[in-house]
Amino acid sequence: MNIISKVMNPLTLREPVRRKGGLCFAVLFLASVILYCNQVFGMPLPAALACAAVSGFVIFKWKLHQAVMQNAIAVHLVSLYTLTFSMRPPDSFRAVMSDFWILMTGFATLIFFIGVSELLFAVLLRLFGGEQHSELLLKCSVVSLALSFTVLLFLPSETYFGNRSQMQYAYLKFAPHFLLSTVIAAAAGTSLLCSLRTAWLRRFCCGISGILLCVYVQYMFMNRSLPEIGAGTVDWADMTGACIRNALIWVLLFTVPFLAEWLIRKGRGRQLAAPGVSFYLSALLGGIQLISLVILGVTAPPAAKTVGVKRPSGAEQFVVSADRNIITIILDGADQQYFEDGYAADPEAFACLHDFTYYTNTAMQYDSTVLSIPGMLTASRTLPGREITAWYEEICADAPAKEFYRLLREADYTVHAFGEFAANDYTPFQDYLDNLNDLTPDSTSIDKDMLYRSIRTLLVYRALPLCMKRFSEPVNGFGNDAVMVKTACIVENDEFLQDLNLRVSESGKPFFTVQHLTGLHNEGADALPMCLDILKKYFAQLKHLGAYDDALIIVTADHGEHSRPMNMPIFLIKQPHEQSEQIRYCSAPVSLTDYAATILDIMGLSQSGDEELFGKPVSAWSEDDTRTRLVFQRRTFRKDGVKDYPEDSRFFGYYFTGTKEDLRIHEEQDSPDLVLNTTLS
After folding, report:
1. Nearest to 679 by CA among 369, 409, 422, 386
2. CB 93 within 8 A of CB 20
3. Which residues contact 229 (CB under 8 A, 6 or more apart)?
């Protein structure tokens, strides 16, 4: 107990030591404010100097630089805890700094965060040196902590545990950072509340507890009108009515604490001691969430394995063979409508595709990357069950996959598939893909800056009202994109374009190469110019290496735009030694399920009886043919919902004959023909 008492008691230093030590602290802190704001936040130097001047005025006005030297040992230990995340500047700034500025900014970042936490506790010490304020301090702490805990720690933690089977990083990789943020935010809020007069204290506490109630109801109930995160961009124009209703509910909920205070005063003839009803409401909601978090942590499934699994290596992503290449470039989310609109606006931008035939009546089978691409690569006709990993194992063991890769091996092909197209572990594909590596602790790292940024975007998206979510819509991944594999494939368009530098393999073997890129998935039509630049540069380098003319090149997409009707993917083919002055068009009813059969047919690798395994190639279909195809749309595609199927149904399947217009009519007028409840993890 004596040790605990000493740790919790304020330091007792002589006046000269406290004054001189505090002055040194203040100078270091103000210098760190200038450097941190200028280098990390990117503020102009005058703005950074202004921030330091304001901070200096407050510090010296209240003599906080001396109060810091009286903080308890426990406070100093909490301050030093910031070492866990503030030793270096963000990676985005390290890339453009010299070694000297990296060192200086890292030191400034450290001093800045330590200084902020020390000053917050110094304010509390100055305000509450006497025991008479202990009850008020406790109540204000609960009100402030409940909101800080909800937004900064509970929401990211609940999202993590609710999706832990998909997470490729441990909870402790981000929890300490957000726990510290919660403590700092709660301390700052408590300092503010305790400095207010009673009337203003009630108003501020009612406002804070009102926001807490709004956030609680928003993430528990009102976010259900949104599609699953990662299912594509939300059509906010169609949600105007929902946004208005949501805003009205926020206004009503926000007024609840104010109304409760008024009713208690009117009904009982007196007020509760400040901060009043806000304390009880905050304690209730905060307690509910704390208990929920503990239950989630205990019952959540194990996290996804990050070692002991196989992942594609990008070490040879820009390697091709001297001849006989089979190259497939998959632009994620490249919808036919985007290409057709882009061509109408600027035909010259598509000049690099002049040797290709564009199949305008192509249908995807699955509106999902992790279903579509594995299905294409295995020529599978087997529909997925609930567990996607079990489906991968099944389709890789099926006869079409075994025969397809046997034929490629007999033709001496090296098979490389680059990008993200399966759920975490690619082990089921190990017999077919030559660029899979075992993950080990030494082969992965976590970009904490990216992880924190991804999680912050996600929690803001969950907490904000509908009308403000459009400004913070997150990308799917839940922070998994921060898990870096040292030999990871390049998937982002800009990185691929920047690093694209093809070279010829020394092995002498022909290559079967699949490149899966972000494409148009995140930005829609805005990403089309960069995608065309990638194709232009890729083909130009193939020509420079003498590997373009005899190559079979397919440019396609795994699916179309998730949220739009008639969302069908592009499909273009350049056969070996095929030349043309401009793009040719074919409206034959083809499908991404024809992928394997088409490759074997064009490269002369087909054998008798293959049609039973792989189906017909695209060349076997004419524009006059009638064909029934099956398309699975995400459940969220149907705005009206379907009540006749289980809630865990993820995909609705529709058979259609004709064009995508016929599919649209079927989707809008009829119930689905098939349903899938496949878990995409």
Report:
1. 386
2. no
3. 458, 461, 474, 476, 478
